[in-house]
């Protein structure tokens, strides 16, 4: 990959985007558009269709027909695999273009975006394509004279609603297993991260995915997303985003056809550092990256640092030094370690959390401010807040920005109590040289993933999903197929 091309790619005009419905490109039924504002400089990048209810219904009808007539759902797994592998190749061939386009739209630093966006999507699609012709049904251990077969059948039409951070990675976590399983999909990207998902949907058609199997409709959550959630023709709804939207989706399911709803929601993930952490400098570096990369806009970000009191001051001092040396700024510069905040609104929300902490007497050790205003973009300095109390909003609620809340603890029990003291349960980490303690903490912390002596970086082979108000269901790994393949029993009397 020739990253010297970034400078050229960042200047290319971006044509107005269009929905991908039934294998063709469409404007909104009423012609309305929404501006795509780049967080790099606050300027308009292009426009998206402001999808209408009619657009969403057209996409759902297309997906329903495609599923029911078997053009994809009844293809052999080996045939589906072939198309999906071709799709992955086409995405890989355009990885740099896609990464730059995505960064111009959502502000993630390019070094991270390259790995976490197109290349992650490619790996995910290949993983599920390769897996689908190796999944077998079951023969039940029944009594003589009977036979019980357990088939796995594609679950039907999938509605997928995804957020603005990592649209390709999270999108592919849904699309890879859903399409491999034989489902048809209506995908609704976030308002501020739609362009790359539209592009890869076009590439899917080029790869031979039949029309109607993958539809992408852009627009507002309350219109397009709500139409998908309320539809009687959507069988499964998969979602990554905020808890507030997750609740609405569950209500919509209850009001409509009781479609299954799988939610991947937010977190307030604890990063627990014991005094016997094997390498304090490594813990400092990984802790800073675990909250400040992508300006904290990472669902599993380690937003709460719980640090043993005996090393609290020295750890915070090292963390301050490391964080202040991070390069925040132009996300298209490969040297940047934290890019832009996604939107003006998100930046405002981040600053409000800091203002509230300051007003409550908490100490802002570093950061807490908007920076690089002259660019017109949305940038925030990595922010460390100490003295945070367990009931503070900063300890309980997701900021989704580069703001770290620090709390000391004196014992393992206290660390567990603090770690488990929120409604969330997405991710966590424990830093210790004590193997027994590490295992104990993994068991005692309520989270979908507990890292030991690291933070983040888990690969596709393991599931990602939360407990508590961080959601249900899992992306990644073979377990993801459970959402898209229904079990059907055939019972024979022989
Ligand atoms: P959001 O809930 O506002 O939006 C997510 C998606 O839902 C968008 O596509 C949006 O248009 C749509 N939506 C909004 N209102 C809707 C409605 N009424 N009906 C249907 N759809 C609607 O979340 P966001 O701000 O885009 O994303 C940030 C959130 O996502 C954070 O809370 C973050 O933690 C979470 N997240 C979780 C994971 C995970 O795997 N658990 C990963 C990434 C992000």
From TrEMBL:
Main EC class the enzyme belongs to: oxidoreductase
EC number: 1.2.1.5
Keywords linked to the UniProt accession: Oxidoreductase
InterPro entries reported in the protein's UniProt record: Ald_DH/histidinol_DH (IPR016161), Ald_DH_C (IPR016163), Ald_DH_CS_CYS (IPR016160), Ald_DH_CS_GLU (IPR029510), Ald_DH_N (IPR016162), Aldehyde_DH_dom (IPR015590)
Active site: 264
Keyword Amino-acid biosynthesis: no
Official protein name in the record: Aldehyde dehydrogenase PuuC
Keyword Oxidoreductase: yes
Domain named Aldehyde dehydrogenase: residues: 30-489
Gene3D superfamilies listed in its UniProt record: Aldehyde Dehydrogenase, Chain A, domain 1, Aldehyde Dehydrogenase, Chain A, domain 2
Molecular function as annotated in GO: aldehyde dehydrogenase [NAD(P)+] activity
Family designation: Belongs to the aldehyde dehydrogenase family.
Domain of life: Bacteria
